[in-house]
Amino acid sequence: MPEMNTSSLPDLIFTILFFFMMVTTMREVTLKVKFTIPAGTELEKLEKKSVVSFIYVGPPTDNLRAQMGSSTRIQLNDRFAEAREVMDFVAAERQGMTNQAEQVISIKADQQTQMGYITDIKEVLRKSWALRINYSATRRN
Amino acid sequence: MAKKKKKMPGLNTSSTADISFMLLIFFLVTTSMDTDMGLARRLPKPPEPDQEDATMDIKARNILYVRINAAGQLWVQDEMTSDWGDIKELRNRVKEFVKNEQNLSKWPEKHVKNIDLLGQCFVTDKHVISVQTDRGTPYNMYFQVQNELVAAYNELRNELSKQKFGREYQYLKDEEKAAIRQYYPQNISEAEPKKYGGN
Q: Cα–chain-centroid distance for residue B139?
């Protein structure tokens, strides 16, 4: 009985591996702010990850507090930013998208954040025509 | 003298499959497949540059104000009453306001509207729920209020779709959903509307 030829098996597995590497996004940024997102009941899933951009709002993490203080900061990509810089961020994020009209901005903000920061961000988002937003939250019963 | 060609032994590749399997499993484990969730909202379009006043004229009876102060307290106000609200009661209060079953004069005006699939309906689609916050309002309180408002609308739409189509809203066909949305449009405003008139 001749043995089965398994020489193409590695290629097969590599193909699956590459597929997974392509579809999964490794875009998790290193968080510079800490936040506990609120809990809600009427949540919707963020379906298309490719059109979602995240804005993080909260106080700096413990090891950054010495330099950055403990007041609320906004994080875009990998750095701290001001609310007005959101406009450039939105435009840059939009560049890489194929269906730009579906762009969604997900706001991950700490529960204790004062609304002033959120209102500022929302005002800039409106001006940059990023109208679909999503207040990130966890599910509660 | 013919040189004897020595056959080079092939590299043993039988373990390559195992190695790539391990890589595959590593990727499967480390990539987070968790789905992000959140409360989806839509911002209003930015005001036109030549537009002096972005506010609309809305009759006082059509507006329900939900104000949240810097201490996170709720102030709910319709045309007749205004009081400190409780987040737990907000949902029912909004539902009553939007529904206006008895056609009370303090709650939004009703008028006849022709909606596909539903026919002639008596709707309150001119109502506006105005959410106003202070710069110091805690984000969590604002989020919970938004959550309750969306919940109120979802419950209203579910009730109507059960009554008309016998199914919950999420199981409806697209055109049925559109009809329900026309009956109960989500009018949540975060800008200051200007009001006029007595009722």
A: 17
